[in-house]
Amino acid sequence: xxxxxxxxxxxxxxxxxxxxxKYLWLDTGRYIFNKDIFKKEPHKEPDLQAxxxxxxxxxxxRSQQANTDGGMGSFHLINKWSSSYPExxxxxxxxxxxxGRKYDNDEVTGSAMKAAKFxxxxxxxxGGWQGGRVAENKPEIVFNTGQAIRGxxxxxxxxxxxxxxxxxxxxxxxxxxxQNPEGYWKxxxxxxxxxxxxTFVDAPLLELYGLTGEESLKNAAIRNLDWVVGEKMLENxxxxxxxxxxxxxxxxxxxxxxxxxxxxxDCGLMLEDEKYIAAARKGAAQLREIFPERGxxxxxxxxxxxxxxxxxxxxxxxxxxxxxxxxxxxxxRVWYDAAGQMLDLLMTVQSRMRGEPVDTLGAIxxxxxxxxxxxxxxxxxxxxxxxxxxxxxxxxLRP
Length: 399
Description:
By secondary structure, the protein is mainly alpha-helical. Helix content is 61%, strand content 4%. It has 14 helices and 7 strands. Strand 1 and strand 2 (80-81) form a beta hairpin. Helix 8 (199-212) runs antiparallel to helix 9 and helix 13 packs across helix 14. The longest helix is centred in the last third of the chain and has 21 residues, at 274-294.
């Protein structure tokens, strides 16, 4: 705790007195003196969303160009570019391919395929992919492997090259082979703790089952989904064991809450099982009803849906995706309107200053304000990835 506070204080002080201070002071001013930022009327011009999407995608490509191995890193105001992050590189690949197809952009699809080749090179002999950044050379992790599978399947569907499907299949067999009989993953899980946000692993396993017909993949996904819904969900839609820490597991971050909900709704649709969709709807509706109270969502929520900490931009983008999916399912405009308001808020956060350097131009920060506790003073690539995904989905579903 003390080390964390010392590091936080160091980043704040160094940021404040360095050229990066302009970001810090901008967000401080917007947060303290412009509370209307959270109460803005939704934008009506689709061109604004398109411009925000273009900037976000350009930054994701930049996050690859900052490294030499083909993977995507993140940018920190003090530490600058990180080494490539296999997990997030995996799920950025489908984002880039979706954009490249929609806008017929060969540069962006080329970036995606370069990232896929990077993941192929670093896949472990077990079939899994490492945790953390590539420079750390950590052991395989369940969640990270699931996200690399997303990238492999997207690369296979785009290129038709068997090597990507083979890599995904090896990873899927590894995941199904190490699953606990009760349905959760503990061995090779982050912190060696079972966590409900592995529903975001179940979804690519089911998609992989659709490509290969391997029953073990489908069975593993269903076992985990049933454990999550049957053992870990409260009546009000909140989930136990949802945080990516041990100490604050009683109030998980919106980021992992959204992973859990997104995985449930996607799996429910693929399995045509209303049980999982209904489970996701409970939590998604709670957050949708909370959202208008302040015009943003808190970074953490306890079992009574009481919020704390500053806005986590990643989770905010993710929950807008979940809301849009429920709009697609139900046709109820309330879901679309909530997502639109959230995306407008994130577009405002994305728009900072004229002449902004390319290292941050178009990126979404970890928190708003920038000095919030989640990924402080940083622009994690996964925040921009989910923002881009939400904008792409919104453009597809726009009434």
